[in-house]
Structures
1.
Amino acid sequence: MKHLNISLKEEEGAVLVVCVLMMAILSLLGTAAIQSTVIDTKISKNYKDSVQALYAAESGVEVVLDAFHAGATTDLDGLNGADFEWVWQSAGDIGSDAARITVNSGLPTQAYIYVDGSQALDAPAFVTIYSLGNPDGTLARREIVQTFTTSAQNIINGAINNSP
C-alpha cells in the first residue's frame, strides 16, 4: 500500500497542468479566429469601396457623355458656357488634370472629371474623358480614361439637332 500512496502523491496537480495547457491552446485558436474574421471584414470593405469607386468613375463618364448628347446648352464646369461648343469648336478642355470638376455620380459618391479636347478639331476628332471615382468617407479611388471619336458631320448634326 505504501507504494500505491507514493505514486498517487507524485501525480497530484497533473490534471491542473493539462487543463491550463488546453485553455492556452483554445485561447490561441480563438484569437486566430477573431483575427481572421477582422482581416476578412477589412478585405470585404476595401473591395466594396473599390467597386463603388469604379461605379462612380463610370457614372462620371456617363455624365459627360450625356452632357455632350444634350448639345450646346450644357455647362458642366460653370465657367465656359456651353461645354459642347467649347470642346468641339474651340478644342478647349473642361477642367484640368490638376483641377478636376466634381460631378455628382449618385449619393454618396462623386466623380472628378477632366475632358481633354485638344484633338477635337483633328480629323477624326478625338476627345478623352478622365473620370476619377471616389466614394464619400473612403480612400478608394478608381480612374477610367475613355477616348471617343466622331466626325465633323456628326458634330454639326448634333449641334443642329440640339440647338434651342
Note: Residues 14-70 form the longest helix (57 residues).
2.
Amino acid sequence: MNQRSRLGVLFLTMLAAVCAAEKSAKPARSAASFEKACSAGKIADCVELGSLYVNGQGVNVDVRKAAEFYRRACDKKSNDGCVRLGALYETGLGVPKDGKKAAALYGEACSRGFSRACTSLGSLYAYGRAGTEKNPRKAAEYYGEACRLDGAASCYLKDLYDKQ
C-alpha cells in the first residue's frame, strides 16, 4: 500500500471514529431547545441542531433539515456551518451534489482562517471529488494554508502534494 493510500485509510478511520462518537453521544439539550436558541440568533446552536438531524440524535434523521440549519449558520458567517454545509454539497446528502458550491463554501470559511475548511478544500482538489477537477497544485495551496493555520496533518498533506 503506497503512502497516499495509507493516509486515505487513516483519514477514513479517524472520520468514522468521530462520527460514531457523535452518534453515540446523547445530546445534553433537546432539539427543541437548540431550535429555540437558533431562532433567537445563536448561530452555534444552529450548527448543533443541524448535527442532531444528521446523526438522528433525539430527532429523526433529516439531512435536508440539517442543511437548512447549516445554511442559516453559514449565512451568519459560521465557519463550522459553512464547512458542514459544504460537506453535504460535496456528498449530495440532503442537497443536490455540487462540487462548485462545496468549494465555494469551503473557500469562504478558509478565507476567514478556518483550517478545517482549507483542508476540506485541499482534499476536494486532491481527489477531484464531487465533479471538481483534480488539481494537485491547488490541493497543495489549500493544504499549505491549513498548515500555516494549525499545522500537523495538513503540513504532511501539503508536502505530499508539493512533490507532485
Note: Residues 7 and 157 are 9 Å apart (CA to CA).
